[in-house]
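Encode chain A's predicted structure.
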Amino acid sequence: MVTVADSRREEILAWLEEVKDPEVPVLSIRELGVLRDVEVSGDEVVVVMTPTYSGCPAMHAMEADVVATLARHGVPNARVKTVYAPPWTTDWISDEAKAKLAAYGIAPPARVESDDLVPLRRRAPVECPYCHSVNTIVRSEFGSTACKAILFCNGCHQPFELFKSI
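Encoded structure for chain A:
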């Protein structure tokens, strides 16, 4: 049997698809895997989120967007609870969301493997999101955000970012 709380939870999860990652606006916080759960108890709504890393500067903006989005939908007293365990991983990004990243011009992260702790420069080549060449090189381990690196494609001569596997 579906309870009122379960029904309300699904409705709230659908509304939260509107909340985008401010650093990668092509993905919702749900697609990114930052949105972990929605807890509904009576009139109380708690949105559970896990940051991509503990110092993620976008978390405050995402939290404010969550509260504002729910207020627009008639949930005035929602709050966000941040949890750090289990830690966020890029494996929580769906294949559909990874395809959106590539279409946006950001190489998506690979599945996390045991050797992913080695420096980016020693990993397998990354496919260019523009021309799909693997003739790419790392230009900087750090991109516009800490979770991205800057690469260069020798095939189409385009710089691009890689969402690092974490």
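The first strand starts at residue 20 and ends at 21.
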